[in-house]
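pasting for ref
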Amino acid sequence: MKRKIIDILIEWKDLAIDQKERKPILLLGAKGVGKTFLAYDFAKSFFEHITYLNFEQDKSLSTSLLRYYLSKREESLQDNHILILDEIPSEPEVISSILHLQTSGAFPYILTASSSPVPKEYQERFLTLPVYPMEFDEFLIATANEWYIEVITNNFISSKKIPDIVHKELLTLFHQYLQIGGMPAAVNEYINMSSLINIPEQHQNLIGSYHDFIVRDHSESDALKMNQVFDCIPLQLLKNNKKFQYKLIRKGTTHAMYQEAIHKLTERSYTILCSKLPSEALSDGNVFFHKNPAADASNTNFKLYLADIGLLYTRLTEEIGKGSHAANEKLSKNRKKALLENYTAQALQARGYPFAFWESDSTAKIDFIIQKDGNLLPIEIHCSDNTRSKSISVFRQKCDIPYAIKISSRNFADTNQIKYIPYYAAFCI
């Protein structure tokens, strides 16, 4: 399965072998996004000799052994050689060995980890590349529907309508993507089976592994809180007001009790955090986004999404299955909005945008705000082709914007400084 990040790896590979300015690659991402496969598949394609060390599977890789092994390898390296160090732990002695290897400039290497193991003062010495679940365009490539991508991209730029038959086909493929998500194992299962039947099981296995990794890598108290937050996200997103509420974890919980757990989940890419943009920041959004609101531990006004839309689809289906038929009808409407918000958050994150949401008392709500070309850009999400809303007009009264985006099931259009795009084109923003 081709990933767009491969192009960056190829550019990195094309740097001269003896060019010591070539920084080591650090692939960061949640479990299951395909970091190891990406690194190894790239290495097989472009290097004759590969040394692969997995710190998670081989607990005997102590610092002294790693240092000894690397020193011996440097004595007899072939020219076309690459080293892959998988799932690097945040242990000072291991990082010291890696930094020593980088200083020697002997040969290229790639590291992978869920969160950066490198201290801040050394991070500039690495080329850090985040790896996220597959985007919709990557899903199209994997499912042999690549030709749609150019159509979507061209019409996004021109705002011209796609022929109705193609538009409907893309909406069908998009609905499949919502169910499957972007985790490579689930996508691969769908391709091999030509069926969605085993997809929920794939998601459950991955969710179970997240719970296990959280327990393994953290203290008992931290792991309990992290798993409680992770497990309550579907309930949070089924509400009309999708802002995170601690009372849904259990009665009496507070921000102070869980802020560290939320920070760790976001840092390890298990969750996506979207903060509220204060109205006073509308005059200078540069300052707000420059501070990285997702990293503000004191922030108490935010939404929390799962890292992958497929995982959320399976979890929401389970939650709705627990209720009565009448309750489920109401929840189904909220589920659609939850899925579309989570999908859009993923798409914006993969595009490298910091993002936030905005509310004006009870008169207006903007699902996402990003900064593009030096301007704030509001993004509104609708659950059908009915895109009527006064929120953009209210926002315009408070902030001068060149245009706004509305995402819905309707075809491309561009009227009155509003760019209408269908769900499947979010990767073009």
